[in-house]
Amino acid sequence: MATERIDKLLAVSGYGSRKDAKKLLHSGAVTVDGVAVTSADFHVDTEKSTVAVDGEPLVFQKHVYIMMNKPANVVSSTKDGEHQTVLDLLKAEYKHRFLGGSLHLIGRLDIDTEGLLLLTTDGSLTHRLTSPKQNIPKTYFARLRDTLNEQEKADYIERFRNGIEVPREHNEEAFTSKSAGLDFESGNECRLTIYEGKYHQVKRMFAELGNEVVYLKRLKEGPIELDPNLQPGQSRELTPDEKAALGI
Ligand code: URA
User: Fold this and answer.
1) What is the pLDDT of residues 195-239, one digit of tens each?
2) Does 208 contact ligand 1 (Cβ within 6 A)?
């Protein structure tokens, strides 16, 4: 049974602070299953009971699952003194509190990387998608500085398939990448699927081969593909099918 204090339920439903909720309760406007409740510490079973304000039933959402098409020049964090953050781009409706926890990012993209970024209040999904043991595939579109001929493309594909030894960068450990899938769309444009999410991973892998990523966009993470209708900066909640694909 999931019980929550009624003042918290009112607060997450947009009725102001807990103090505001208390005033509302004292006014007699709040009912639980049709019976007026005035005490702020009354506990409600959110799965079974209906809370109403002035007769309007409230709908509680435990978790929210969002995909964003992250634009460049925006940082993947919740706070930053200097740059706009991805949270600044979210619609206000996603910023109110959900019962299940605070909104956070599932992994990060560099400031100049665009594309699929998932956000949620569900810590267990975040753990599943970011745990190195889960081998969750992530697919990127990359544009490279140097154009390759057919032999060089074949060499890159082979090197990525065999795993690349990436040296230490700043405080980040060296690592050997898991076997990665690389497909070329032209001499300098490719799709890369990797199975871990190390710091600057894609850029460091191509740098190891003497090239440089000049544009990077994430297209897919696990079963979730970036919605092509989302313009950079736009976001939407995951659909029921997308959530089912994630096992939610
Ligand atoms: N790899 C990178 O180098 N940067 C990203 O933003 C994501 C993966």
Assistant:
1) 999 999 999 999 999 999 999 999 999 999 999 999 999 999 999
2) no
